[in-house]
Amino acid sequence: MDGPRPAGDGAAADVLAADAVADRFSGTPVRIRASTLKSGEYKNDFRDMTRSDLSYQTTAASYDVAGLGPDDIDVLSMRVQPISADVSR
Asked: Which residues contact 36 (CB under 8 A, 6 or more apart)?
């Protein structure tokens, strides 16, 4: 399928290796500087779904852990999924 994928179509894979192993496969391995997980609070009322404060908070926490800022990053991968989508499966 060419072009944009539907929101439900996706996959990701991370391969983690020690420096000596990674160097056998690439002269410029990717370094993971931070991995951050946060959970939102339950609200049974209006929630602005056009802006995720939790996404901003999680990104800020990752920058803090990594000791970096947005200008230092080439690639940022973030998965934001409502818990209802995970639970309903």
From this structure: 58, 61, 62, 65
